[in-house]
Amino acid sequence: MSKIMQSKKFQRKIEDFVCEHCGTSVEGTGYTDHCPICLWSKHVDMNPGDRAADCRAMMEPVGIEIKGNEKIIYYQCQKCGLKHRVKSAPDDNFEEILKLTRRGI
Question: Residue 61 forms beta bridges with which residues?
């Protein structure tokens, strides 16, 4: 009887990148999945950190939900339409978060 290997749902990858939306150089922490300046992301993962998505298009921050002290940023892929959400990071641009609160979710 063979065993089926299951991939981990989260794979920590420490990667620096240049934001393709605003050009900011971002120092990754292993949990960094969006630009802290403009909040845009890139569609690179199927599961967090796996870099298995073929799309590779930009993901626009389209809304935010506030739950207690947490801010959840909602994204939509500009190419394939995938919707995704992530927690905001402590160093995220508060002005951009405020702009998203005006949009809702």
Answer: 75
- 26 pairs with which residues across the strands? 17
Count Cβ atoms within 10 A of the Cβ of residue 89 and give its class: 0-12 exposed, 13-18 middle, 19 or more buried: middle
Question: How many structural domains does the chain have?
Answer: 1
Q: In this predicted structure, what is the pLDDT of residue 10?
A: 76
For 68, 93, 103, the CA distances from 39, given in Å and listed in that order, are 20, 8, 14
Does residue 10 form part of some domain?
A: no
- Residue 94: partners with Cβ closer than 8 Å, 6 or more residues away: none
Buried b (16+ CB within 10 A) or exposed e, 33-46: bbbbbbbbbbbbbe
Task: Check if the beta carbon of residue 42 is closer than 8 Å to that of residue 24.
Answer: no
Parent domain of 29: 17-103
Instruction: Give 35-91 pLDDT, tens digit per residue.
Output: 999 999 999 988 888 888 999 999 999 999 989 999 999 999 999 999 999 999 999
